Amino acid sequence: MKNRLKVLRAERGWSQQDLAERLEVSRQSVNAIETGRYDPSLPLAFRIADLFGMTIEEIFQRGE
Amino acid sequence: MTDQTLSRGPAWFWGGAFFVGMFGTGFAARALDLGSIPSALVMIPPMLLLIPLVRASEKAQAACGALSPATRRYNRRGLIWAFGYVIFLFVAVFGAKSGASGPLLWLLALLPALPIFFMLWTMARYLVEETDEYLRLRVINAALWATGLLLAVATVWGFLETFELVPHVPGWAAVPVWAVGLGASSIVNRWREA
């Protein structure tokens, strides 16, 4: 799955640590999601979408 | 990146020192034919290396953003069972050598198994308490790899033993083999993420 997490985070001037704290996950998790090594569960994907005020599909897209 | 690399150094160092210390004293005790009780005693100092090893590992985990409260609790509980294991093992060996028999010997023989049950509980608690799904998945993966390694080693060794090519290894060796597999998988995980 592809995602725009890194871009969305950069637009807000957040570090990976900032985003991790807002999502209440580890920085390692944010890094793994951003680099496509880990696809989040639906509950976490909803939390990410809610944080950015977007839908899941606007952040995560199909594809490798 | 530099910080991560620097903070990983001590964990590797203490891990190596612990490994060399435990196996070194184990082999030395056997080679010198020290007997059960002195053998258990000489393995206590290398066990103490677990404390700086856990502290250095936590620093490394914190540096790469992977130290959750559940991981911290798991590490602390890990130290408790590791030391409990050595102490109970010493008590059991000492008791058996002192001529314990009957029900008391049964009790002593089962004593070192208690910290292992605590270890299993620690592992289960970690999986329940870890709120970070990615970190939890990583530990589950590492545990599966460790289980695979244990099954492979036990099967190969078992057949070699059946055909009398290698000496008998007691069943309790399963836990150390599994722990080595867990540690190796965690190291591979970190390498892949570096």
UniProtKB/TrEMBL annotation, chain A:
Pfam families found in the cross-reference section: HTH_3
UniProt GO molecular function: DNA binding
Domain HTH cro/C1-type residue range list: 5-59
Keywords: DNA-binding
Protein's UniProt name: Transcriptional regulator
Lineage: Bacteria, Pseudomonadati, Pseudomonadota, Alphaproteobacteria, Sphingomonadales
Automatic annotation (TrEMBL), chain B:
Keywords on record: Membrane, Transmembrane, Transmembrane helix
Source organism, top-level taxon: Bacteria
Membrane spanning residue stretches: 12-31, 37-57, 78-98, 104-127, 139-160, 172-191
Protein name: Uncharacterized protein
